[in-house]
Description:
Low-confidence stretches of chain A: none
Number of strands of chain A: 2
Oligomer: heterodimer
Radius of gyration of chain B: 21 Å
GO molecular function, one term (chain A): ubiquinone binding
Number of domains of chain A: 1
Number of strands of chain B: 2
Membrane topology (chain A): Multi-pass membrane protein
Protein name (chain A): NADH dehydrogenase subunit M
Helix content of chain A: over 70%
Strand order of the largest sheet of chain A: 1-2
Organism (chain A): Palleronia pelagia
Low-confidence stretches of chain B: none
InterPro entries (chain A): NADH_Q_OxRdtase_chainM/4, NADH_UbQ_OxRdtase, ND/Mrp_TM
Strand content of chain A: under 5%
Number of helices of chain B: 19
Amino acid sequence: MLTLAILIPLLASLILAFVPIGEVASRWTATGAAALSLVALVIVWAGGGDGFRAVAEVPWIPTLGIAWRVGVDGMSLGLALMSALIFVAATAWPLKLHDARAYYAWMAFLAGVSIGLFVTLDLIVFYVFFDLSLVGMYFLIGRWGHGDAQHAALKFFVYTLAGSLLILIGIIVLALNMPTLTFDMRAMIDSPPLAAAGMVPGLVFLAFVIGFGIKTPVFPVHTWLPPAHVNAPGPASAILAGVLLKMGTYGLIRIPLQMMPDTFARWALPLAIVGVISILWGSIVAFAQDNLKRRIAYTSVNHMGYTVLGIAVAGSALGSETARQLAMTGAVVEMIAHGLITGALFLIAGAVWQRTGDYHLPNFGGLAGPAPRLTGAATLAAFASLGLPGLAGFVAELHIFLGAFGVYPWLAAIGLLGILITAALFLRMLRQMFFGDLPKERAGFTDLDRTETALLAGLLVLVVLIGVWPTWLLSLIDAASLIPAPGAGG
Amino acid sequence: MPIGDLAPELTVLLTAVAVLLLAMVLPQRRHGWCALLAAAGLALSMALAWAQADAHRLTFSGTFALDGATTWARFAIPGLTILCVGLAPRWFATDRRHGEFYAMLLFSTLGAMAMAGAADLMQLVMGVLLSSVTGYVLAAYHRDWAISLEAGMKYFLVGALANALLVIGVVFVMGMAGSTDYRDLAGAIPDNPVALAGLTLVLMGLFFKLGAVPAHTWVPDVAEGAPAPAAAFLTVIPKLAAAVALYRLVALTPETQALPLLVALVAAATMTVGNLCALWQDDVRRLVGWSSISQTGYALMAVAVAGAVPDALPALLAFMSVYGIANLLAFAAIVELRGRTAIADYRGLIRKHPGPAIALTLAFLSFVGIPPLAGFLGKFALFVATLEAGLAWLVVVAVANTILSLFYYLRVIGPAVFSRPEGAMATLGGTARATFWALFALLLATTFLWSPVWSALPRALLP
């Protein structure tokens, strides 16, 4: 079933690449493929179960211990569901395009590899999907972006490939230190290799943190993000922020935290500090941006900072077990919530670009008059992003900070400042965009059409649902099973 | 001396002679038949190699090793040469000496096969010299085009020096160890400065063939100036043979620390120099040339850990096979575009000629090692072997270089895919196009064939 969820979009991408069909048909092919993936994942979800479920395995290169292994636990299922949903929204999003068929082919391709990354249980297949997501995004940004898109795409590809190669080194060293050469994630989680203290585990950990840190991104390796976002088309930005960034934090939990827990615990504090710096840096720099998309992009750095803080707390082996579980829950919920919220925000930004070709905030104002639906959606998403109680962001951040106060109280206190700044910057953004006088050149501004409204509503309903009644998500994630028992495997 | 043991090599030799004779009797416009004859001879050679695939012994008084590595070379070298032959007919259609080109190509192939199987230093010298002498001619084949002549001249000058050093090195080693036979040399080369200097000089000769630092300077000129089918041949076939020969040599001295270290340092220098020089190239053929130098650097990682880990030899052979296919594909795309070479001319290529544009993209991404292209599996095998042997610093250098290399590959891919096309571009067609598509399919198929091929590759060498 999980294999189907990967193959359907990839197949759709092949069809789109080779069969000459029209623009509308292409769009619906890609959307349909993503939707079918979503259905397959929902079926797995409905099947229930504990630990890794829906497992399937086909040998690929047995002599090297590489195989096509798929299976999900609560975290990866949650992320895969969220990804599929974002892809449905992003591909269905109406867009004026050149070479539409190729665009939707890349979108479907990206859907397949992103879902594949979350559901695979083999480190090499994980790496394959990790790199393919870079290739897909490179061509999407470079070909359909605006402004200095080629340069942004190049920077994105080179920067993140650097990260992924560091991860590859780490993966190989981990596998070589297993009793028999294997890239099976379950085997490594059950008996973590490289448990002893020393140079090698530290360096491998560093390779993973830098590699995933670039993708997440955390300060100071986040500089590829703003140009990539600003120049990408709106739906591609939504995928970049909503799905691709999660690969970094997902990897951080799956590999260093679960496969080398002792080393992680030794280095948790520096990682938490990096997280807090990202929180503050992201929010402060976002506050200073006059470009709508750049501002949202920097809030991604800020929000991924919360996630990294949560992960660091969860793996710290300090404080009470409850505190660590709270932090882990928060980190995973933050990933899903941020995916939905920022996905919505970037789609909104895409809608604004489609209508005006402009991102400069001071050029806007008073849009609440001509575009009430856009205003409503943007307001709701912004409030969710700044962590208003009753919305998804609040649930996530509450858990993270409750956990963090139990382990690193000072860091948590500093991190709280970030929420304050984020609130200010979003409120200012809303004021600049939607209130005040409508500038003359914006006179013909049209509101969201029916498709756009429906798609945004779909995402935002979930944001509200998670905010009001998060139990279903929390029980799906089951954070307790994600944190390795202290001292496991020595 | 069982003549049959060298049947594949002799087939190539006899075919070369036959092609030469055929070229003399046929009128120039029918010289395409020579290509067909050459390809048939190479295919026959592969079939004969198949019959000996399980052999594991020395032959011809211990001068030639019939083992897994030789078998690999007997498939890879003629196999990829057939594809080089396929690129040539239309390219040379108006050349007065069209038919002789294939004879020269076959003699060079023979030199490469002799080099790969050599189990004796004198045999090695013979193979290197045969491969080099014919190489100079192939590089300068367009003799009324200054750039082609310059390429041939540079190749010759660097080659003459490197081959002289090789011969001097052989003399040193023979003087110190008392033999040129690998059986006698294995583990018995005395650990003194003269013998070490001799080995280093022999290595220098092979570094020239491989296009490794410091004897690498011919590669970009040959890539740019030689006729594109010859450039494809010269940047791939001799390298395959030299990689095997080098591995055999380094494996002879398992207890010497200096030699693997030297190879590791050369590997690091080669990949770095190749990539740095490729960064701002505005000429696609020179860029591919420099990139092939950096690829040699990666391959040398496996030689640096020769004997230390069991998977070093298969990693080397697998990487070289994939490199050969991808490099030929890149050149095949260029041949199909009639040798067009300025990066600016490639703008918007995908809209005019999607085939070559996609092929170049795939070949380049395979060089970078983007999965699941076969280049990733080759690089992955190299990384595993090198990390297992504990040379983590070398892997870090390789990773840094890979990132660097992505930048210049994207300098070609980016404009080719993202920009608007300007002006028309002619293509070559004919067998060149057919060969191009065959290589395209081969590169894609390698990903799926990886598992059986990997388990079939040899782990052990003679003697």
